[in-house]
From TrEMBL:
GO molecular function: hydrolase activity, acting on glycosyl bonds
Residues the record marks as active site: 372
Name this polypeptide is given: Uncharacterized protein
Keyword set, alphabetical order: Glycosidase, Hydrolase
Superkingdom of origin: Eukaryota
Family: Belongs to the glycosyl hydrolase 1 family.
UniProt-listed Gene3D superfamilies: Glycosidases
Length: 470
């Protein structure tokens, strides 16, 4: 049995579904630029130019939401659709109208919006000024956040400032496989992560100082993490490597926000050892300034995105200036683990529950929303996606056990994703939807997968239980 008021949702993100990349005065974002430059950065040079065309077909999305019986829908605002150059100097009223319609239609249908302010799509105009690497971005993001609270906050009560700073920093600046595609290993990811935390904290404080009282909502940031286990469970080196692996992934962001207000000591000490070896003055891991608003406590709930697991082995002593050498550990896929869809994505029963317990234990038992969790597919479309049905049933069962048996305070579950969509560097090759989208047709026809029906029936069973108990 799930708690009353449990949120049953599904999620999407603007660049992945909207299309209309330059319609009605929208400014370009770093994903527009990244896709348009071609050269195979994205599978077969796909782009989100049209994607699911949700900018024009929102009402089709709403039908899907209603068919599933969701209580909540998580979507993101395209910053450069609202503010084409990223600043409040110029507001695109058509963008405001679009999101007003989405929010109003949801509320009229009794579905509550959870709104992400930033899901990977920085306005290109801001990137041109240095983007997330510059300290000024925190104040610029804060202005954007205030604009959104002011414009939509009378109706939106659940806000996510940033989606997955880990992914933005690591894939965008360490590996260079996500926009903006920069590769400055061992340096920029720490700086970007730092400025993202500062930006988030500013936006959280603004909400609490200026809007919380009259709007009564809650603000957090979405953090993702693999679950990690030692490759060799009897090796003390591998066990220590798991600690470092987590320190450089989830703890990197949870320590500042939920635990101490600063980066994990373990992370800092690993980086500083390597700084000395490399002859760096100071540290590549920035420090939070005492003159800025505090980072600690800037989340009203924990927003968790969880997909996959790794076996971790020690590789301390690896040379070079990279995050991987700093952490002295590497995560690998255990060949016995079932892979779904893409090679990075393995599904191991019990691991979501372990990660939930890890968060409960390390972050002072916060209220948790699982804001993303899902199952990828590649290859020929199979509307009868039995495996994904099994996945959702098991994952939701694990969440229930974590609540009932372990006392984890889980408040909601959002399947990723409502629709098949533009899966970043994998383009349209990888499908996560509860609804299939036919990308070969201009109508972008949506058709429910068997897993969509399965999820709808789980939600309806829950709603019946609530009614019966009342
Ligand atoms: C997350 C991301 C989503 C989605 C998902 C599946 O990192 O927030 O946008 O793409 O991964 O890979």
């Amino acid at each position: 049995m799930f708690p009353t008021q449990f949120a049953w949702g599904a999620g999407t993100a603007a660049y992945q579904i909207e299309g209309g990349w330059n319609k009605d005065d929208k400014g370009p974002s770093i994903w527009d630029t990244f896709c348009h430059k071609g050269g195979g950065h994205v599978f077969e040079d796909h782009s989100g130019d049209i994607a699911c065309n949700s900018y024009e077909l929102w009402e089709e999305d709403l039908k899907c939401i209603l068919q599933l019986g969701l209580t909540h829908y998580r979507f993101s605002l395209a910053w450069s659709r609202l503010l084409p150059d990223g600043t409040t100097n110029h507001v695109n009223e058509k963008g405001v109208q679009y999101y007003n319609k989405v929010i109003n239609d949801l509320l009229a249908s009794n579905v509550l919006p959870m709104v992400t302010l930033y899901h990977f799509d920085l306005p290109q105009a801001l990137q041109d000024q240095g983007g997330w690497k510059t300290p000024e971005i925190a104040g610029i993001f804060d202005s954007y956040a205030r604009f959104c609270y002011e414009t939509f906050g009378d109706r939106v009560k659940l806000w996510i400032t940033l989606n997955e700073p880990f992914v933005c920093a690591k894939l965008g600046y360490e590996d260079g496989i996500f926009a903006p595609g920069e590769k400055q290993p061992g340096i920029s990811a720490y700086l970007v992560g730092h400025n993202m935390l500062r930006a988030h904290a500013r936006a959280w404080h603004s909400y609490h100082t200026l809007y919380k009282e009259k709007q009564g909502g809650a603000v957090s940031l979405a953090l993702n993490s693999d679950w990690a286990e030692p490759l060799n469970p009897t090796s003390s080196d591998d066990i220590a490597a798991v600690k470092r692996y987590l320190a450089f992934s989830i703890d990197w962001f949870t320590w500042p926000v939920f635990v101490t207000g600063d980066y994990p000591e373990l992370m800092r000490s690993c980086i500083e050892v390597r700084d000395k070896e490399l002859g760096y003055q100071g540290s590549r891991l920035p420090r939070f300034s005492k003159d800025e608003p505090s980072i600690l406590g800037t989340a009203d709930f924990f927003s968790l995105n969880y997909y996959t697991s790794r076996k971790v082995k020690d590789e301390g002593g690896r040379p070079g200036c990279r995050m991987r050498s700093d952490q002295g550990a590497v995560g690998v896929v255990d060949p016995t683990w079932p892979v779904c869809g893409v090679s990075w994505h393995v599904v191991v029963p019990g691991h979501l529950r372990r990660l939930l317990n890890y968060i409960k234990d390390t972050c002072n038992n916060p209220a948790i929303y699982i804001t993303e969790n899902g199952f990828s597919q590649v290859g020929p479309v199979d509307l009868d996606d039995v495996q994904r049905c099994g996945y959702y049933k098991d994952a939701i069962q694990e969440v229930e056990t974590a609540i009932k048996t372990d006392g984890v305070d889980v408040r909601g579950y959002f399947a990723w994703s409502l629709l098949d969509n533009f899966e970043w560097a994998d383009g349209f090759r990888v499908r996560f939807g509860l609804f299939h989208v036919d990308f070969t047709r201009p109508e972008r026809t949506r058709t429910i997968y068997r897993s969509g029906r399965e999820y709808a029936s789980i939600i309806s069973k829950y709603k019946t239980q609530i009614k019966t108990n009342n």
